[in-house]
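Sequence in, structure out.
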Amino acid sequence: MLEYIFFSTINSLLYGMLLFMLSSGLTLIFSMMGILNFAHASFFMLGAYFAYQISQFVGFWPGLVIAPLLVGVLGALVERYGLRSVHKHGHVAELLFTVGLAYLIEEIVMLIWGRNAVPYQIPNILDFALVNILGTDLSAYRVFMLVVSIGMFIFLFLVLTRSRIGLIIQAALTHPDGVSTLGHNVPGVFMLVFGGGSALAGLAGVIGGNYLITEPSMAAHLGPIVFVVIVVGGMGSLTGAFIASLLLGAIQTFAVGVQVSLSDLLALFGLTPEPSGLLKDFLRIQISHTGPILPYLFMVLMLIFRPKGLMGKRET
């Protein structure tokens, strides 16, 4: 039991921090620009594929720097020559544009790299057991993922709350005319924000692509859960996204090992119903089978009882 709790905690922390790395860029874009980028997970996928391709020539570490920069430049170009044109037509136009962009990126990825997963491997220097706990190895790469994700949170928090550029970015959202009067290029600021958010997604792809599986469907698999994270955490709240990522990661990870059904829970309280048909099948469903849907159920409950999320302030 102790071993299950310990390793479920470690795995939930890893998965939660991966979710945060992916959702942090989307949170940044929404909090600064009010844009819900439905192609954000596609930039995550591009980061993984770019890192894989770069690692074939110069290794993992140059790819760790180059791939996010390439994704960031691509994101900036998308904002400059795409989103900027449709932004004036409202959120529906932005939604349609980003959804279409997600499908376009997926098709391009399949044209270039094929439909099968690519062999994007963990670097040899980090492919070893750092420590053995309770008879199970904890790999160095998992610790590296934790360090990078925690460092990303600290860096973003300091940039947005303590730096001059962070103040300019936040002021450009609420008072663009005033910021423009002071001599700052407001459209350039927005392009920088979107490119930076895309680069963060690319960095998450570099780190998470070899931990997961780098394949064309990875964006479709992770995209929905990212929006659950920012809704639960509070739209536009970086701290809320951090807490929600850890919470949802724990919910999914711990649920996998709970072999308890609803009928078992009722039996604990002395209730032994004898239903038949569909209700009987429903009561026999184990919690471990419901792991993938629990985050979405949690989001529904959050929208009912606290629509702004855990730390949300902004009206959507």
